[in-house]
Amino acid sequence: MPPKAQTQDTHSRFLLIEGEVRIRHLLSAMLQVAGAKIVHNVPSGKAGQEVLLNQAVDVVVCDWNAPEMNGVEFLRSVRGLPVTKYLPFLMMSPAGQLKEEELAAARDFDVDGHLFKPITQEDLQAGVRGAVGRYNAMAKAYTHLARAAAYVDIGEFDEARQEIRAAQLAGGESARVWSEAGNLLAAIGAPAEAKECYRRSIEFDRGYARAYDKLGAILEEEGDSEAALKFLTASTQMSPRNRERQFTLAKAMLARGDVEGARAAVHRGIEAEGGAAHRSAVSAAAAEFFMSAGRADLAEEEYAFALEGDPANVHYFNRLGIAFRRQKKYKEAVDNYRKAIQVVNNDPVLYYNLAIALAESGQIPQAVGTLRRALVLDPHFKAAEDLLRRIEARARQGG
Hints:
Distance between the termini: 63 Å
Number of helices: 19
Shape: elongated
Order of helices and strands: EHEHEHEHEHHHHHHHHHHHHHHH
Number of strands: 5
Strand order of the largest sheet: 2-1-3-4-5
CATH architecture of the domain at 13-136: 3-Layer(aba) Sandwich
Helix content: 55-70%
């Protein structure tokens, strides 16, 4: 459950995350001047998570560039736990550092405000006062939402509905409250009501990307791909630095046959969160998305791009071979593994995968010989032993 509503003067337990020792101690002292009774000042997001697991906290103040997990990653983790879901959260960054899309990324997880360095005592107090004031205004709604979530978890849907209605009444025109209500209604299998909540959320805040996401996802499930695409596209335009959002848009585009649009969305999603720095790694990550989406043909293209930039990467060869095999392009798979073996000739997994492709293409004697080569390299390769046994048995039976 969220903490009880606080008065402006009782937000006394702080979690401060700042990587630079000097700045951390200075901000800690400033918070104490502002009336903080306890300040847990830690150097990283990982350390901050430990505090939240073991200590009561009223307000989080976190640096955007916190070590180990950046501010948005930490904010996401805070919003992902029921006990900390609604904690007031202030993000710090140097003035002028953040781009609009980065501010939007923080808003995706309901950041309560930004503090721009160098931070004055007045800035700090005003930021905390604003965040706590907004929390207090919605505390009753948040409590009802937390209770509703607990009822959903145990399958008590009637009680959950009562709490959701109470949250909607207490939340007034809060886009966040209506969106969270929609999430809960979707979880209990009430998509029509969930859609109405997301529409209300959008009415109250035209820039609340999360409601667009959720509404688009329901419309996609209902088969209204054109309307879904409209909302999903709008959400990515508002806040593009969100991998999950871009991947959802890509799936909707694939459903409509827009391969190039889907490819662009996947690459944006990977690049936006810094998931892969090198172009080859971006293509490989995109290939994995397409494999999971059942488009081995597109995965094949992406792995080919990846290998152009990193031609000695055995993992890419292995995955490209799987993409070929899923398309029943066994000759291409065999050729691919043989190229890989020219690069690395002592990897038993490559020989094992080559043997599978050979067997699938009907080249049984060659598959047997290749598996024996794999077992020479690794005598304890059980999967190769099992496959060799099955292939030899099939050969004896004339299959």
